[in-house]
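Ops channel
N.P.: pipeline sanity check, posting one input/output pair.
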């Protein structure tokens, strides 16, 4: 009996062990057999990782739409004449297709983006000529007890043509302006305005200008708003000492609503001091500058006048307030420069980071061999070598009024010559490889002045000479070139220019190879930089670049 009992125990033991092995090999089918790290979706019942909503991604999408409240369609207004886009309420911005500026305008059109987190935004390819712009947005939002849902969707914008305010005035012929900046400078040349024109173009202050009118002693800028005129005046004050005055004229008024419409006129007087001008400062101004010498040479013009005492190598500056307090004209300007030949250079050992003091023996180039040798000092000791040519002011041959030289008895005797810069008369005469942009200007009303054909031809010739002098000044001064944009001339032919620059055998000794030139690395390539690229109207709203669309939500 004991043997039978032991046999039954062994039988039941192995039976239950085999049954447990079979159960372990089977898949879980009940709630009790589900892994503790997974749960079942409360709606569809599939196994998902645990989350606060206890729902799968598909069920959350059917229950919650985070794009609700964000429009899926919109309208963009573009000016077909100047390729600018309207940024509400009334600002027109110049931007290219697929640019970040245009994408910013599209996003500002969508309400409800403040309530979600914008993860990504991009353009979607659209058919050319469809005037449709599509954007694909990816947003995130917290829903259902801390669950963060991410979703992609598209927004389609319809592009509608609308002329901007500036183009409307041009097309209708109603150039109504509300602010006029009258920039004036009492000089015999236009080099200052040529330079200011390039600065305005580089810094894009011409975009808001309705019209530029050429005047005998300056330029008139017309704007649609007063604030735009004030911005230009502030810009001019950063590049030249100015003094402004303002006046306004009442155009219309509404007494009931207490509104008035004015036209504002700003008179901007630019200091008549230019680079390379010779100055004789008033006595009180010399005292304010710490006992500076009255005879000074202007080396740079910015928001202050940079002066140098070429005899003692002392530097000083005059701001706009100091200048217009005394308001003195230049003693001599660049039109009075005379060519000299340097015979001897003797450095004096006094130097700064830019200048070096030296004594010069020189003679006028038209008096070579006469023995009329002159002695002077210069701040350009590092530049000159015996035999070089220079430009300077001949003070012995100049005639001055006593009022032009206040305090001359305290200063003493004037030097014979004031050397200004090195001269390169035999520089290359071929066409330049670079060119400059120019603003479109309207000439003064022909009925306001009557001049003969001879006077008009003389004025055009004088203007051409001033412009050539300005271009030569740019070639000589790299610091000035760094402040503006120079463009590669598309009509320039290097081969023909090299043939034109080959000197003859008799002129080889006179040909100057050390004359300063504009490097090709300083130029901007292409007509696109000049703003002269022709746009194809059919491609104005062309393809925005093909991009795959992903409809996944998580």
């Amino acid at each position: 009996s004991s043997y039978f009992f032991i046999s039954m125990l062994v039988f039941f033991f192995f039976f239950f062990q085999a049954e447990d092995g079979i159960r372990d090999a089977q898949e879980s089918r009940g709630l009790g057999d589900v892994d503790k790290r997974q749960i079942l979706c409360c709606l569809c019942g599939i196994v998902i990782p645990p989350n606060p909503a206890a729902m799968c991604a598909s069920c959350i999408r059917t229950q919650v739409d985070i794009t609700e409240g964000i429009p899926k369609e919109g309208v963009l207004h573009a000016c077909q004449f100047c390729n600018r886009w309207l940024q509400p309420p009334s600002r027109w911005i110049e931007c290219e297709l697929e640019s970040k500026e245009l994408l910013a305008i599209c996003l500002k059109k969508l309400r409800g983006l403040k309530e979600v987190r914008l993860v990504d935004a991009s353009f979607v390819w659209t058919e050319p000529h469809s005037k449709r712009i599509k954007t694909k947005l990816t947003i995130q939002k917290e829903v259902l007890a801390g669950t963060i849902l991410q979703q992609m969707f598209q927004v389609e914008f319809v592009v509608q043509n609308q002329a901007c305010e500036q183009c409307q005035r041009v097309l209708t012929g109603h150039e109504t302006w509300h602010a006029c900046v009258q920039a004036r400078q009492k000089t015999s040349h236009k080099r200052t305005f040529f330079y200011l024109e390039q600065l305005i173009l580089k810094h894009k202050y011409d975009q808001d200008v309705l019209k530029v009118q050429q005047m005998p002693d300056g330029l008139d800028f017309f704007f649609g708003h007063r604030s735009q005129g004030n911005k230009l005046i502030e810009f001019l004050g950063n590049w030249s000492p100015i003094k402004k005055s303002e006046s306004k004229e009442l155009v219309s008024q509404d007494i009931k609503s207490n509104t008035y419409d004015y036209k504002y006129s700003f008179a901007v007087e630019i200091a008549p001091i230019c680079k390379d001008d010779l100055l004789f400062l008033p006595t009180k101004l010399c005292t304010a500058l710490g006992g500076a010498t009255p005879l000074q040479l202007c080396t740079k013009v910015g928001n202050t006048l940079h002066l140098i005492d070429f005899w003692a190598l002392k530097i000083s500056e005059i701001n706009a307030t100091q200048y217009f307090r005394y308001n003195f004209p230049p003693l001599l300007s660049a039109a009075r420069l005379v060519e000299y030949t340097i015979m001897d250079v003797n450095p004096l050992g006094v130097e700064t980071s830019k200048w070096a003091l030296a004594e010069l023996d020189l003679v006028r180039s038209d008096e070579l061999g006469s023995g009329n040798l002159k002695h002077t000092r210069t701040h350009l000791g590092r530049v000159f070598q015996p035999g070089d040519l220079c430009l300077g002011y001949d003070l012995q041959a100049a005639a001055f009024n006593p009022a032009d030289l206040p305090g001359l008895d305290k200063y003493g005797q004037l030097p014979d010559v004031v050397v200004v810069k090195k001269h390169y008369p035999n520089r290359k005469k071929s066409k330049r490889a670079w060119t400059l942009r120019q603003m479109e200007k309207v000439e003064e009303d022909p009925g306001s002045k009557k001049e003969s054909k001879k006077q008009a031809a003389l004025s055009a010739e004088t203007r051409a000479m001033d412009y050539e002098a300005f271009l030569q000044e740019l070639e000589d001064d790299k610091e000035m070139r760094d402040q503006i944009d120079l463009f590669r001339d598309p009509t320039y032919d290097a081969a023909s220019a090299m043939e034109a620059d080959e000197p003859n055998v008799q002129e080889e000794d006179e040909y100057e190879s050390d004359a300063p030139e504009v490097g090709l690395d300083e130029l901007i390539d292409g007509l696109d930089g000049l703003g002269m690229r022709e746009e194809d109207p059919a491609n104005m709203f062309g393809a925005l670049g093909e991009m795959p669309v992903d409809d996944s939500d998580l």
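N.P.: looks fine end to end. The radius of gyration is 39 Å.
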